[in-house]
Design a protein that fits this description.
By secondary structure, the protein is of the alpha/beta class. The protein has two domains: 169 residues, NAD(P)-binding Rossmann-like Domain (Rossmann fold); 108 residues, 6-phosphogluconate dehydrogenase C-terminal like domain (6-phosphogluconate dehydrogenase C-terminal fold), CATH 1.10.3660.10. It has an eight-stranded mixed beta sheet, with helices on both faces. Helix 1 links the parallel strand 1 and strand 2. Helix 8 packs across helix 11. The longest helix has 29 residues. The protein starts with a strand and ends in an 8-residue tail after the last helix. The model has no long low-confidence stretch (mean pLDDT 95). The chain binds 1,4-dihydronicotinamide adenine dinucleotide and 3-(4-hydroxy-phenyl)pyruvic acid. 1,4-dihydronicotinamide adenine dinucleotide (NAI) binds next to helix 1, helix 4, strand 6 and helix 10. The site of 3-(4-hydroxy-phenyl)pyruvic acid (ENO) has 8 residues, from loops. This is Prephenate dehydrogenase. GO terms for molecular function: NAD+ binding; prephenate dehydrogenase (NAD+) activity; prephenate dehydrogenase (NADP+) activity.
Length: 292
């Protein structure tokens, strides 16, 4: 049966971009949008990206697909709430949260009711927030992680068709593998970027020139430190174990390079930068997504 009605809860950067892409798809669905933010909601309706503003509680039963796109802590709450709401028998519930173990656990109540759930996470975004910042090309060519739940193959295919205009690279893995991987490539880098800003700001607090003299390197290394603290606090709390383990490895590695610099160990210092340069150059040939 064709899926025609998608409810998106959370119309911020990611939820609004999903709406934009779905509206470009061949089977453009009717989109019901739920978000407590009046400005974002009105903007989405005015732009005809959302057909009707609703609340999740009232409208969940009308949807063929429900995409949860609020902060991870809200997604977890809403999965529990959905398990007690009247829903269509063949609805697919999915999410876009940056962590998956806690989300998959919270979805167990839906499994008990035979309501399909599939975890999801687009690996593209920005430090900006809100529906006005969303873009139709935000995800172009990016990786989109899927964590298989108890959805049917037809439901997965329907979700992929709705997002087809973004030409995504779909990658399926377990929640544990996902959380360990994104901790390494997203969550720990975020902590390091924020720490660079905080440390530099503190050490330069009495310097009249200080941070304002920073060149492009400092700015590009720390761009993500300008992200929303609510979203990142929720991510840290829901992936605390993997992030803690990996931070220990980073602290050890920092101590190793600190010792090499302190002892003026030229070969080791050179090798440190040479290795990073080679890895970083290979990454440039794999660009996907429109992170800005
Ligand atoms: N920002 C990024 O680059 C990426 C974020 N994500 C994940 O996507 C999710 C959304 O992030 P963004 O769109 O960036 O955040 P955002 O801050 O732009 O949007 C979040 C939206 O959720 C709404 N919201 C808050 N409580 C709600 C509730 N009870 N019901 C419905 N909506 C509610 C807010 O009003 C806001 O409009 C998060 O789980 C995040 O971890 C995933 C990939 C990339
Ligand atoms: O802004 C950037 O470059 C990002 O890396 C955005 C981002 C933030 C959170 C995610 O879970 C995935 C991507």
């Amino acid at each position: 049966m064709a899926l025609t009605t998608v409810l998106i809860s959370g119309l911020g950067l990611i939820g609004s971009s999903i709406a934009r892409v779905m509206k470009q798809s061949d089977e453009a669905p009717t989109i019901l949008g739920a978000d407590p933010n009046d400005d974002t909601s009105q903007f989405m309706v005015d732009q005809h990206l959302v057909d009707e503003r609703v609340t999740l509680t009232e409208a969940a039963g009308r949807a063929d697909m429900i995409v949860l796109a609020g902060p991870v802590s809200i997604i977890v709450q809403q999965l529990k709430e959905l398990a007690n709401l009247p829903l269509k028998a063949d609805v697919l519930v999915t999410d876009v949260g940056s962590t998956k173990t806690q989300v998959m656990q919270a979805a167990e109540g839906l499994r008990a009711r035979h309501v399909a759930f599939m975890g999801g996470h687009p690996m593209a975004g920005s430090h900006q927030t809100g529906g006005r910042s969303g873009r139709v090309d935000l995800f172009d060519g990016a990786t989109y992680f899927l964590v298989t739940g108890w959805q049917t193959a037809a439901q997965t295919a329907a979700f992929k068709r709705f997002l087809a205009p973004a030409s995504l690279n779909w990658v399926t893995m377990s929640a544990t593998e996902h959380d360990a991987l994104v901790s390494e490539i997203s969550h720990v880098p975020h902590v390091l970027a924020a720490n660079l800003v905080n440390t530099a700001a503190q050490q330069l607090q009495h310097d009249p020139v200080g941070l304002n003299a920073a060149a492009g390197g400092f700015k590009s290394t720390t761009r993500i430190a300008g992200s929303d603290p609510t979203m990142w606090t929720a991510i840290m709390l829901s992936n605390s174990e993997a992030i803690t383990t990996q931070l220990t490895a980073y602290i050890d590695a920092l101590q190793t390079i600190q010792t090499a610099i302190q002892h003026r160990d030229e070969p080791q210092i050179y090798q440190f930068f040479e290795h990073a340069q080679a890895v970083r150059q290979r990454l440039d040939s794999h660009e996907g997504g429109n992170n800005k």
